[in-house]
Specification:
Layout (H helix, E strand, L loop, with lengths): L11 E7 L3 H12 L4 E4 L16 E2 L4 H5 L5 H12 L5 H22 L3 E3 L19 E4 L2 E2 L27 H7 L6 H17 L8 E2 L1 H15 L3 E3 L2 E9 L2 E9 L2 E13 L8 H7 L17 H8 L12 E10 L5 E5 L10 E4 L13 H10 L5 E6 H7 L12 H5 L3 E4 L2 H8 L3 H17 L11 H6 L18 E13 L10 E3 L5 E7 L17 H19 L9
Parallel strand pairs: 1-2, 1-11, 2-8, 11-19
Antiparallel strand pairs: 3-5, 4-5, 6-7, 9-10, 10-11, 12-13, 12-17, 14-15, 15-17, 16-17, 18-19
Helix pairs in contact: 1-7, 1-16, 3-4, 4-16, 13-14
């Protein structure tokens, strides 16, 4: 399979898609299955956007796996979203998501082999809401052999470097947990030997391991299948403007290298550029203060495709609670001077033996809540930034951000300032600038909770979501553990948007709407370019990609059913 990013831009196609993440590729794949010709324009040199560095999980209530197990989920899922989202988004969009997500997943699996497996233990994030599920709604992609992409493998966007082992080997969360037992389990040792042997063999030819999992696996499988369907995926294509034919969007004008091209879009143009998490200007304008300085999203998610839609007459949706999908992250400068951003998702915050404190040295939130709700808690409590506090035993057993569990030494992280060390809580408090007596009192109170297993302040460990992300071998509460006397450590946590939830208004068919609420002919929007169908709420793992692929699927279906509109010369 040869790369077709250069000198292959067609003069016309049925559908032109801007963006090569899960949303854009789902549009292209579905449309091609419906018989349309498609071209995907990616302005970056790599394919996959933020999706390629994500978990690759999709949130699909009432999916076929649930039905096969005899679960009836349509009613509970609707109850859950109604309670969580309320009037923050039009009910018809929530209904469209719930009705079509299972159809999308089944259709792409049956017709194109886009395979997922259920994640029974992935509980919905808001267990305090009626209709929340203990698992099964989140689906994770199967591993993928990157060698199937041939030379194009090197054009697939890589995960964040720190999310790979040995600088290039991908592992799932479950595999990582097994690898920690390599010195105590023969099966774990065999798993490690197999993974490392494959990785070393890959490195004889490739820049990194070709055994792909999570978001990299999802994007690679979508891309390969698109290519087999004849979809043209063009990299390094900067879209300059959308072309208009009367009131209809009829194509795009783009620049590749030094040449400007026009591509006619007979059925329409789809905006799927990933929102604006990587634009400092957009963040300053749309996100709450203190404004996030960093984002783990792909650097190309700058809001440019939203701007193109606005220029064509589309409008932004209403301002939301915070307009972002959040991660609390720690930040470190790498040896080459670049910035490493580590999202504290589930690997450490919920584990027993760590707390988060604000500048007064006090806890302000249940540390085990979802990453999205944790950051919201930071903003509510005026705790930006905050500090995660733990002892050496915790770091050794569970890791801490960029520090992996059982790391033989953490001195370099202390020397470069990534973590702060104190021999006592008083010394640590002095170094991070919080009142020593207050921090000591906070830790003492928290440690008393561990004796009874009940967090009297924030209820940590009371929901199945908290407990699943804790340490199930730890009793009486998987999420509560003692913080020892010393040495003790702190890592600074900052709010970082992985995605954004404010975008262009659409109807339930993913058609862009103008200021009068009318659909703009020939213009579709999906992914984070689209105003969130869930009003910026985050119901469970994979909600961003679930929306992206579902409304991408709907856009393709609508475009396939529309009449062709030949472009007139203007």
């Amino acid at each position: 399979m040869k790369d077709n990013s250069e000198n292959t831009l067609p003069g016309s196609a049925d559908l032109v898609i801007l963006g090569s993440g899960a949303a854009g590729l789902a549009v292209a794949l579905t449309a091609s299955l419906e018989g349309l010709s498609c071209v995907v324009l990616e302005h970056d040199s790599k394919i996959g956007g933020t999706s390629a560095r994500s978990s690759g999980t999709v949130w699909v209530p009432d999916n076929r796996f649930m039905r096969a197990e005899g679960m009836s989920d349509a009613g509970p899922a609707a109850e859950y979203l109604d309670a969580l989202v309320g009037d923050r988004a039009p009910a018809k969009l929530q209904q469209a998501y719930l009705a079509n997500a299972p159809q999308m997943q089944a259709d792409l699996e049956d017709r194109a082999g886009i395979t997922f497996r259920p994640y029974p233990a992935a509980a919905d994030y808001r267990q305090d809401m009626p209709g929340a599920a203990p698992g099964w709604r989140a689906l994770e992609p199967l591993p993928f052999d990157g060698r199937e992409l041939d030379e194009d493998f090197e054009h697939l966007a890589a995960p964040l470097p720190e999310h790979m082992v040995f600088g290039g080997m991908m592992v799932t969360r479950a595999e990582a947990a097994r690898l920690l037992r390599v010195d105590r389990s023969i099966s774990a040792m065999l798993t490690a030997v197999g993974l490392v042997a494959r990785f070393l063999y890959d490195r004889l030819k490739w820049s990194r391991g070709t055994r792909l999992v999570i978001g990299n696996a999802l994007v690679a499988r979508l891309w390969l299948t698109c290519r087999k369907q004849g979809v043209q995926v063009v990299r390094n294509a900067e879209t300059l403007r959308l072309l208009r034919d009367g009131g209809r969007v009829s194509g795009v004008e783009c620049r590749i290298g030094g040449d400007v091209h026009k591509v006619e879009a007979r059925r329409g143009v789809v905006l799927a550029g990933g929102g604006f998490p990587s634009s400092a200007e957009w963040r300053q304008r749309e996100l709450p203060a203190p404004v996030a300085e960093y984002s783990p999203a792909a650097p190309g998610a700058t809001g440019r495709t939203i701007e193109l839609g606005l220029e064509a007459g589309a409008v932004l949706g209403p301002d939301g609670l915070d307009n972002a999908q959040w991660f609390p992250s720690s930040v470190m400068t790498r040896k080459d001077g670049s910035t490493a951003i580590w999202p504290h998702i589930i690997l450490d915050r919920a584990k027993p033996g760590a707390i988060a404190v604000d500048e007064t040295g006090k806890r302000f939130v249940n540390e085990a809540v979802s990453y999205h709700e944790f950051v919201r808690g930071m903003y509510r409590a005026d705790a930006v930034p905050c500090w995660m506090i733990c002892d050496r035993r915790f770091v050794r057993k569970y890791g801490l951000g960029l520090i992996r569990p059982r790391a033989p030494s953490i001195r370099r992280y202390v020397r470069n300032g990534y973590i702060v060390e104190g021999q006592t809580l008083s010394e640590l408090a002095s170094k991070i600038g919080v009142p020593g007596e207050a921090l000591a009192a906070t830790v003492a109170r928290f440690n008393r909770f561990t004796e009874t297993g009940r967090d009297e302040d924030f209820g940590r460990g009371e929901t199945i979501y908290d407990r699943n992300n804790g340490d199930v071998s730890h009793t009486p509460n998987p999420s509560l553990g003692v913080i020892g006397r010393g040495p003790v450590y702190a890592v600074k946590l900052l709010p970082t948007p992985l995605g954004t939830s404010r975008g262009l208004l659409t109807d339930e068919r993913a058609r862009a709407l103008d200021a009068n609420g009318a659909a703009i002919a020939g213009l579709y929007v999906c992914g984070n370019d689209m105003q969130s169908s869930l009003g910026g709420e985050y119901p469970g793992a994979g909600a961003q990609l679930g929306q992206a692929m579902t409304f991408g699927w709907l856009a393709a279906k609508d475009a396939a059913s529309a009449k062709e509109h030949p472009r007139e010369e203007t």
